[in-house]
Amino acid sequence: MILLSLIIPVYNVEPYIGQCLQSIADNSADMSPIEIIIVNDGTRDSSMDIVYRYSDTFPNIHIVEQDNLGLSSARMTGLKEAVGEWVWFVDSDDYLCSGALNTILGLIKQEIAADLMVFPLLWHFINDTKDFIDYDYSETQRRIGKDVLREQKIPVWGAPRYLINKRLFSSSDLFFPIGLIHEDEYFGRVLLYSAQEVIVHRKPVYCYRQSDASIMHNQTIRTSYDLVSIYKYLSSFCDSTVDIQDRTWFRSQIIGLLLESYTKNEMLYGTPAFRKFRKDCQGYIVKEYRKHCLQFNKNRIKADMLLLHTPVVYRTLFSLYYKKGR
Hints:
Blueprint: E1 4-10, H1 17-25, E2 34-41, H2 47-57, E3 61-66, H3 71-81, E4 86-89, E5 95-96, H4 100-110, E6 116-118, E7 121-125, E8 132-133, E9 141-144, H5 145-151, E10 162-165, H6 183-194, E11 197-200, E12 206-210, H7 221-240, H8 247-263, H9 272-292, H10 298-309, H11 311-317, H12 319-324
Parallel strand pairs: 1-2, 1-4, 2-3, 6-11, 7-12
Antiparallel strand pairs: 4-10, 5-12, 6-10, 7-8, 9-11
Helix pairs in contact: 1-2, 5-6, 6-7, 7-8, 7-9, 8-9, 10-11
């Protein structure tokens, strides 16, 4: 019986995929309850040569080929192939912490009734020796998913932080939006809201590699457009699925994505690309913000409206606040 399906999209990760697969190989004495689904997302380098070398040694590696359709598509392709009771999305430029798989398999056997397990990510900076863990709970806790989401004590993004019982994917709402970056902003929120029994763990099992070459450190105006699209997906989910009594706090969280569509691209203020984005999206963003802003205090409303209408002035007046992050 396969207990765990690891889904690993591969696209141009030749320098990293070997460490990723080796961290899996080194992690468990018994690989029989595990399947490793490699989705070749049309990689153009020699990443797959490394994968094939590992597949000669580990028969539980299953390789799926597709054209380059992006991370979301590759994850969904892998999910269709998965037969494990639990699913773990692993990015091919990251790696597992020592002993992670043995820990995970032990927890799966203990927590068969759980819908979801959540772990902090151990951030590893390539050019720095200082790693850190991105949330801190004093002890492991058993929670209801939407309560975890409402409290906002853990980041919702980062699919690899979630160990997911496959039965949750019976919901048509739970997917990665195809062709968008920041897809985890949608996926993580829907996942947490949909899960009843959630185990929030305090120790990391996953090393999240950070480099200047990553998608999140090379943002363009596409970031702004995609954040608006993610908001629209979440707004539709809120209207169709979120309980009426939960909609106010849910809306207050997702409205921040519209504000981020401005703040994520501070360096593009005043450029033709940003002016076009504002022409295309500002009317919608302001309309949505005004519709839901009554739940915020007056000072925040003034600051946010200044951001949306005159971002350069906002950056000047709130530069210290801005640099600390919203």
